[in-house]
Amino acid sequence: MSYFVYILKCSDGSLYTGITTDITKRLDEHNNSEKGAKYTKARRPVKLIYQESSENRSTASKREYAIKKLTRVKKLQLIEKTF
């Protein structure tokens, strides 16, 4: 099963990083349901601005942790390199 690490841009301009197996479903949950993260519920709507695939949950979780430790500037540089 493939996992994805993603970054969302919230309505207040903040960035949220997470992992999922289904990007489309998870984005919908963040924007429209009670299953979204507590952080994003107060900052809707959110927009997907970055994603990368991982082999498994373990590598996705490690990558998520590494991205979360980056400064905002470094996260934005990562996003820019992708597009």
TrEMBL record:
GIY-YIG domain location is: 1-77
- SUPFAM superfamilies listed in its UniProt record: GIY-YIG endonuclease
Cross-referenced InterPro entries? GIY-YIG_endonuc, GIY-YIG_endonuc_sf, UPF0213_domain
Q: Which domain of life is it from?
A: Bacteria
Which family does the record assign?
Belongs to the UPF0213 family.
Spell out the protein name for this chain.
Answer: GIY-YIG nuclease family protein
Annotated source species: Poseidonibacter ostreae
